[in-house]
């Protein structure tokens, strides 16, 4: 049997393998670099960056949950100036494939970030995070409404030029994710990132108060995997030609394969990295073995396989 072709594509960009990090779970990659060579990862998706440095929400901002965890980080980060001066050159020096995640408080801020990125060398795509659950004003979750979701993507498309693929990161906390996907596809995205965390809450029954200082947080980990599989399946069914970067509780090659069968063209590993920083490489190797066992000689033939003949 011939060697597996493990490569994948998002828009015009090709990636040597389909296992990526998930935004927010490996910052800009430097913590992971002590455990593994970053150039073996399909792509590093950086923590969503904003126009200005930000300290994030008050602590505690993590809480354990059954088969998962809640986070309430609140977009902590260095801001775009330091990110472009320090993080990007360092990632480029590691020969990492880079997907930059961006987040704004207003449509204009997304446009400003896109303009800053358009001339930067070494970036393969931009993830437009329109679905952060930990914003002060829940009315500002752009991905919860078709019009605001589209407005952000139009601003990014206008400012970034035609070269860099744009991937919109959507929230599962909506009535109909297919309608949100439709609006951002019409607004010009090249791909979708499905799914961000679900909004959750934990109350400590000893103190009788919420465990997180910010009260609510984003739920991630294996508990949300069936939600991710469902969202990917629904969106792939409606838009089979739009590449999906799938994420949500992937902790093994088998889990990644499940998201791929649902329709993902690539899979990001997030929460699993906290327990095992080498998870992303282990999952890549397990997936490669599984595809070979199932007689796939081209990874791309497995994308959306669960839809065939249904
Ligand atoms: O920073 C966060 O609190 C955060 C973000 Br930007 C996001 O997109 N998803 C999440 O669970 N947390």
From TrEMBL:
Protein's pathway: Pyrimidine metabolism; UMP biosynthesis via de novo pathway
UniProt GO MF annotations: dihydroorotate dehydrogenase activity
Compartments in which it is found: Cytoplasm
Dihydroorotate dehydrogenase catalytic domain residues: 7-291
Gene3D superfamilies: Aldolase class I
Biological process terms in GO annotation: 'de novo' pyrimidine nucleobase biosynthetic process; 'de novo' UMP biosynthetic process
Coiled-coil ranges from the UniProt annotation: none
Cofactor(s) this protein cannot do without: FMN
PROSITE patterns found in the cross-reference section: DHODEHASE_2
Main localisation: cytoplasm
Keywords for this protein: Cytoplasm, Flavoprotein, FMN, Oxidoreductase, Pyrimidine biosynthesis
GO cellular component, one term: cytoplasm
Pfam (any one): DHO_dh
Family, similarity comment: Belongs to the dihydroorotate dehydrogenase family. Type 1 subfamily.
HAMAP family membership: DHO_dh_type1
Alphabetized PANTHER family for the sequence: DIHYDROOROTATE DEHYDROGENASE (FUMARATE) (PTHR48109:SF1), DIHYDROOROTATE DEHYDROGENASE (QUINONE), MITOCHONDRIAL-RELATED (PTHR48109)
Name of this protein: Unannotated protein
């Amino acid at each position: 049997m011939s060697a597996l072709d493990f490569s994948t594509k998002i828009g015009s960009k090709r990636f040597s393998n389909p296992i990526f990090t998930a935004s927010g779970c490996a910052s800009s990659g430097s913590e992971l670099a002590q455990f593994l060579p970053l150039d073996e990862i399909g792509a590093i998706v950086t923590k969503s960056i904003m126009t200005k440095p930000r300290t994030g929400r008050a602590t505690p901002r993590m809480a354990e949950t059954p088969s998962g965890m809640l986070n309430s980080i609140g977009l902590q980060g260095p801001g775009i100036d330091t990110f472009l001066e320090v993080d990007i050159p360092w990632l480029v020096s590691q020969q990492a494939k880079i997907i930059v995640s961006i987040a704004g408080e207003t449509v204009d801020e997304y446009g400003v970030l896109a303009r800053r990125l358009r001339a930067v060398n070494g970036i393969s795509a931009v993830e437009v995070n329109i679905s952060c659950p930990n914003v002060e004003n829940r009315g500002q979750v752009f991905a919860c409404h078709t019009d605001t979701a589209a407005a952000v993507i139009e601003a990014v498309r206008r400012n970034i030029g035609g070269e860099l693929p744009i991937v919109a990161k959507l929230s599962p906390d909506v009535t109909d994710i297919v309608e949100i996907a439709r609006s951002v596809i019409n607004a010009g995205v090249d791909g979708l990132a499905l799914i961000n965390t679900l909004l959750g809450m934990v109350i400590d029954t000893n103190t009788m108060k919420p465990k997180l200082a910010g009260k609510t947080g984003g739920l991630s980990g294996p508990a949300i995997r069936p939600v991710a599989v469902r969202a990917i399946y629904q969106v792939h069914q409606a838009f089979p030609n739009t590449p999906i970067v799938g994420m949500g509780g992937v902790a093994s090659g088998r889990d990644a394969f499940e998201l791929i069968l649902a329709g993902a063209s690539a899979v990001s590993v997030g929460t699993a990295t906290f327990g095992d920083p080498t998870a992303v490489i282990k999952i890549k190797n397990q997936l490669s073995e599984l595809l070979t066992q199932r007689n796939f000689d081209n990874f791309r033939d497995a994308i959306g396989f669960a839809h065939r003949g249904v």
